[in-house]
Structure formats: C-alpha cells, structure tokens
C-alpha cells in the first residue's frame, strides 16, 4: 500500500478495532520507535483464566479506546512519513517491549523470547569450515517432517554436509500423511511454525492441513533443502561400526524395493511419535468385507456418499473427521470408549477477521507480536492447571485449579447438550482435564452428535464381523465402511528400525519398551546418534512442539560443535546422566494430571509410565537444550 493511499486511515481504523491491544501496542512501539505508547495505564494483564486469555488483556473500554487512539495516531504518522523501517534494536533493547506484554520475567526467558520475535539468536554461530576445516563429516537425518527440516536447516547453516532420508515422496511428515477430511491444527499456527521462518499470511488461527503442508513445502524450497533429501528412502537399520566409528544405515528404496547402505558420522532420527497407526485387537477385525482404513491412511477412492460408516474412537483425529463425513454419509455410528475434554474455542473453524489480516499484512512486524502474545500465554500458562496437588481428594480433578477448569469445561458441555440429556450423560469425562489430550471446538461436535443420522455408541466393541461391529450388549451394527481413529503406537519409538550401538546393543532391547533419552535426545551406548521429538519431549499444556524440536536441534548442533572443538570422533551420553535425568522427569510426570494412575492414554508406555510427555517447565527444557553439560558426556578422541 502506497503512503498516499486514501483508504489507509479507514482500513486502519477498522483493523485497530479487531486487534488485541497487548500485541498491537508493542508492535506499533517497535515499528515506530515511539515507546511512549507503552504507558503504565495501558499495561495488559495477560494472565489466563481456566478457559484462556481475558480479551484485550482485561483493559477497560476507556483504556482500550485510549490504546486504539494512540496506536492509530502513531501508525498514521508512520504511514505518512513513507513507512520507514523499524529502528535497529539490540536484543537487550527489546526487553522493554517484551516486558510490556509479560511483566518482569526471569532473564533466562529472554533468549527464548527473542527467537519468538524472529530474532534468530539461536542458530549456529559457527561453521564446520571455521571450526574444523579438514574434518570429513557427514550427517544423515532420518525424516523430512517438521523436526527433520529444522535439523536440515541448521546443518545447512553450519555447513555440515548432510543427507535427509525420507520414506515418503514429499516433505511434511504427519502433515503429508494425514489428509483425512477436516484435518487441521488445534494449536495456533502462529506458534506452530518455526521461530526462524515466521509467516504473516495465515488465513486461520488454526490452519487447515493443506496450509501447514504448504508452509513446510515452501520452507524446504526457500531454504534450498530439497536437493539434500532422498525421497522414497526408508531406513530399516542403523548399525554403529565401533572400529570405524561410523553409522551404517540400511535403506530400502520404496519404489523398487532395492536395498543400499549409507554411511554417516552422525545420525539424527526425526521419525516422529505419531505415525504408526494403532488398530484395536478386536476379534474378527480382518473379517470385515467392507472398506476399512485408519484416519492417517485415508482411502480417497471410496466415496462415502450414501454409505453407513462406523468411526472407532473419539480422539483428536476422529473429532475432526466425524463432523465432515456426517455431511456425506447416509449414517455415522461413532464408537466412543472415553469422551474427550473439549476447550471451547469460538474461532476454531473461523478465518481471521479481515481487519486482523490487514494488520498482519500491512504493518511490518505485527505478526511477530501477535505470535509473541500467544506464545507467552502458552509457554507455561496452562501448566498450573495440570499440576497435581497431593492433598487434593476430589475425584475427577487433581488440584483446585484443575477442578476450576473441570467445572468450566463441564458447564460448557452442559450448555452445548442442554437439549439432549441422553447425550450429555455420555460426553462428560470422569478423568481430570489434561489427563488425556484436550480437544478444541466451537460447537460443531455437539451439533454433529445431535444429528439424526449420527449415533453415539458407548458400549465396548467385542467383535468385528464381515458386516459390521458387535458391542458388549450384543447389538450388531451393520456398516459399509469402518474408519479407525484409534491413534498411534506412540511409545514404540523408532520401531521398526533396528538400531545397534556399541557392543552390538540393540536399542529396543536396551529400552525394553521404556524409551528413555537424556534431554530426550541422546542414549548411552549410541554415540553420535540423536533423537528429535524423542522420549518425553511431547508437549501437553505448555509450549509448542515446534519450539521443542527447534530446541532439540539446538542441542544436537551444540553436541556437534563440542565434538568438533575437541576434535573428537564421538560423543556419548554417560549412563549416570540418563539416570539423573529420569529421576527428575519421572517424579515430575507423576505430579502431572497426565501421569495419574488409572487413566489410559497415548502419553504412556504399556507399563503406565509417561514416556512421551515433557512434565517440567518449558524454561527448564530450553535451558537444558542450550548445550550438553560436559560432565554428562564422554568424548572419544582416539584416532
Ligand atoms: P488418540 O488420541 O490416541 O485417540 C484414539 C481414540 O481411539 C481414543 O478415543 C481411544 O479411546 C479410541 N480407541 C482406541 N482403541 C479403541 C478400541 N479398541 N475401541 C474403542 N475405541 C478405541 O489418536 P488420534 O485421535 O489419532 O490423536 C493422536 C494425537 O495426534 C493427538 O492427541 C494429537 O497430539 C495428534 N493430533 C493432532 C491433531 C491436531 O493438531 N489437530 C489432529 C489429530 C491428531 P480411549 O481414549 O479410551 O483410549
């Protein structure tokens, strides 16, 4: 938009009315350099309530009016002055602006914050050429999903030669594989995107799958990563050769089945947690004569129009599928074993307001502050609702805060199903909020369950027959199609890859079904082998999974730097370090709602131990991933 565009003032006025002032005011102060906007009497209180953030930081309507007037005036002047670029800020100068949103915070948060504002202070400040110019070193990254691409980007920046092996034909990982109807984010995509590749053009707060996939494709393209990726290449084994101190990977070409070997000095596994479909062990599963598939392997050849469709499960995937397919199918029978808790989210399916999109597009840097506000609210914000109070004894909750959240969520369900007490009786969970994955909705779930052509079945499935499903009360539900929304084998990390480390130790034998890795990244006896989105790095109530993957990549890069600095051949975690890490992590998991006994979820291994989630603060993970503690690692310098 040119600076003499007469529409600017008008568009600005309507845009400013839909903006959240806690992000608009620092954004305008940042852009114009006019920090007088950040007045004490306009300082937002951004403390979350059980159901989220108070609108406009709790500012009164008079305060809001004043904030809008000041922001508009400053932006008009900026526009008339020819839209100059924001002044140069040193990282420490940004603190004042950030603390307008956050209030005074622990200094250790600042490097975390800067990244969220797009100041890329966390990338490698070294290259292999600088540190060890004569060193021959090659890394193999397994997987080109969200984590693998982040690793590829940082390796590329550091000039460390690498190859990415990806079994699919494209990048994107779960966002490529999951193309079921209704697939979309249920965390804000402003936070579910790399801090170092922020995007102002999102149309939704909770993007559709195609936009997320496009984001990862564009990122791979823009960073010229594609030529490093070997698509259609599935790693079946990785073996460490102790004499040569080399990893040898067995790679199957998915097109022709041929097998080859690739050597690497280090391996970064970025294979994810949620991509191996889990099917129920129900008798007769194979006997069904209709079409059947898993949500993550959608069969687009079958038209559901006029079909009777069974959907098994009410987790995040089915929750998005059912409202979509109910429109087409003749009837949907939904089999629910456990109801989900639902966070009311009025804008869950809505496009961002046009004014907001205008601001994101026209006001440079606004999207960073929009992200920053969401990030700050989410970073530790909801953790307190999931903490167990050992003295708390009310069933169905784990603390006073958790109980307050439970009451608010129950009220929402009671309102949504007020006209259908028969359904209400089945949709209120008996377990504490955050013991399982919380879902989001804007009323669509309730309206779908109330449809005449949707039946909610809560009897357990006892058998599958050639024609349908039988439940414990003996009912036989005849259907044409069965869709399994039954989740993933999340605790079986790296299965079916055969990973063999020092002394011929097989990773799966070492783990014995209980995957553990120091800082979620390294496993003793598996030198130069690093995991991304590994054990205990999944996020439930605080932070963003993208932030965690970025942090893990920082840690891997710092391990490599340590290796090069010492001119060592390998870096290997000490077993005592792993034990110490797990004393802390396991104790913390037991003190979180998702660790309580008696609630089954994909967060836990088959023994009931939480092996997927990070149970501590985001800040602690951030601090631990700034680099390896030298006392926790052995460097092998022998030539
Ligand atoms: P899930 O959360 O593991 O849900 C599986 C569902 O299947 C549960 O309702 C489970 O019931 C049910 N189930 C399993 N076996 C069953 C059986 N034998 N009989 C009846 N019901 C059975 O899997 P998901 O929905 O695919 O989601 C997995 C994770 O992927 C999510 O938690 C989320 O992290 C991620 N995801 C994210 C998004 C997003 O961002 N929008 C979308 C989809 C998935 P129980 O609860 O009783 O076990």
From TrEMBL:
Enzyme class, spelled out: oxidoreductase
* Keyword vocabulary terms for this entry: FAD, Flavoprotein, Oxidoreductase
- Pfam families found in the cross-reference section: FMO-like
Q: Which organism is it from?
A: Rhodococcus chondri
- Please indicate which superkingdom the organism of origin belongs to: Bacteria
Q: What is its EC number?
A: 1.14.13.-
What is a single molecular function from GO for this protein?
oxidoreductase activity
Region Disordered: list its residue ranges.
Answer: 42-61
Q: Which residues form the signal peptide?
A: none
**Keyword Nucleotide-binding assigned:** no
Name of the protein in question: NAD(P)/FAD-dependent oxidoreductase
- Name the family: Belongs to the FAD-binding monooxygenase family.
Gene3D superfamilies assigned to the protein according to its UniProt record, in alphabetical order: FAD/NAD(P)-binding domain (3.50.50.60)
């Amino acid at each position: 938009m040119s600076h003499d565009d007469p529409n600017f003032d008008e568009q600005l006025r309507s845009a400013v009315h839909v903006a959240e002032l806690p992000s608009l005011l620092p954004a305008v102060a940042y852009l114009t350099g006019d920090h007088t906007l950040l007045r004490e009497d306009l300082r937002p209180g951004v403390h979350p309530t059980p159901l989220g953030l108070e609108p406009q930081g709790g500012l009164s309507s008079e305060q809001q009016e004043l904030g809008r007037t000041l922001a508009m005036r400053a932006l008009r002047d900026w526009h008339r002055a020819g839209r100059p670029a924001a002044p140069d800020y040193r990282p420490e100068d940004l603190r004042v602006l950030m603390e307008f949103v956050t209030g005074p915070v622990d200094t250790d948060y600042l490097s975390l914050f800067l990244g969220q504002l797009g100041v890329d202070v966390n990338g490698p400040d070294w290259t292999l050429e600088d540190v060890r110019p004569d060193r021959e070193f090659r890394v193999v990254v397994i997987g080109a999903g969200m984590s693998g691409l982040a690793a590829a980007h940082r390796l590329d920046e550091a000039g460390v030669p690498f190859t990415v092996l990806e079994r699919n034909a494209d990048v994107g990982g779960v966002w490529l594989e999951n193309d079921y109807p209704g697939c979309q984010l249920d965390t804000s995509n402003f936070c579910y995107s790399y801090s170092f590749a922020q995007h102002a053009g999102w149309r939704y707060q909770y993007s559709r799958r195609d936009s997320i996939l496009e984001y990862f494709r564009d990122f791979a393209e823009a960073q010229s990563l594609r030529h490093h990726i070997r698509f259609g290449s599935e790693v079946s084994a990785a073996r460490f050769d102790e004499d040569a101190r080399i990893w040898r990977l067995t790679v199957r070409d998915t097109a022709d089945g041929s097998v080859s070997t690739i050597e690497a000095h280090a391996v970064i596994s970025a294979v994810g947690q949620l991509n191996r479909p889990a099917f129920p062990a129900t008798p007769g599963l194979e006997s069904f004569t209709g079409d059947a598939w898993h949500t993550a392997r959608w069969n687009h050849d079958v038209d559901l129009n006029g079909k009777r469709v069974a959907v098994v499960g009410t987790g995040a995937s089915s929750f998005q599928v059912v409202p979509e397919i109910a429109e087409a199918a003749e009837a949907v029978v939904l089999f629910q074993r456990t109801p989900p808790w639902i966070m009311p989210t009025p804008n869950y399916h809505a496009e961002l307001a046009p004014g907001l999109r205008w601001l994101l597009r026209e006001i440079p840097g606004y999207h960073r502050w929009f992200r920053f506000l969401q990030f700050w609210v989410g970073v530790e914000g909801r953790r307190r609702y999931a903490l167990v109070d050992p003295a708390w004894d009310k069933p169905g909750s784990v603390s006073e805060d958790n109980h307050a959240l439970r009451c608010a969520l129950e009220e929402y369900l009671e309102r949504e199903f007020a006209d259908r007490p028969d359904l209400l009786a089945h949709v209120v969970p008996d377990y504490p909020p955050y013991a399982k994955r919380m879902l989001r909705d804007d009323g669509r779930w309730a309206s779908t369950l109330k449809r005449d052509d949707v039946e909610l079945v809560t009897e357990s499935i006892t058998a599958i027959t050639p024609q349908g499903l039988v439940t414990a009360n003996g009912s036989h539900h005849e259907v044409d199609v069965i869709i399994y929304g039954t989740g993933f084998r999340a605790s079986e990390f790296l299965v079916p890859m055969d990973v063999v480390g020092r002394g011929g130790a097989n990773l799966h034998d070492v783990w014995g079904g209980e995957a553990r890795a120091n800082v979620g990244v390294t496993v003793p006896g598996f030198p130069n082998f690093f995991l991304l989105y590994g054990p205990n790095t999944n996020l439930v109530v605080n932070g963003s999974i993208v932030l965690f993957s970025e942090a893990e990549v920082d840690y891997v890069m710092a391990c490599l730097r340590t290796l090069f600095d010492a001119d060592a051949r390998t870096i290997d975690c000490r077993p005592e370090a792993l034990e110490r890490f797990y004393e802390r992590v396991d104790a913390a998991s037991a003190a979180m709602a998702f660790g309580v006994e008696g609630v089954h979820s994909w967060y836990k291994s088959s023994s009931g131990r939480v092996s997927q989630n990070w149970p501590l603060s985001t800040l602690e993970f951030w601090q631990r991933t700034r680099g390896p503690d030298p006392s926790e690692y052995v460097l092998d310098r022998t030539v």
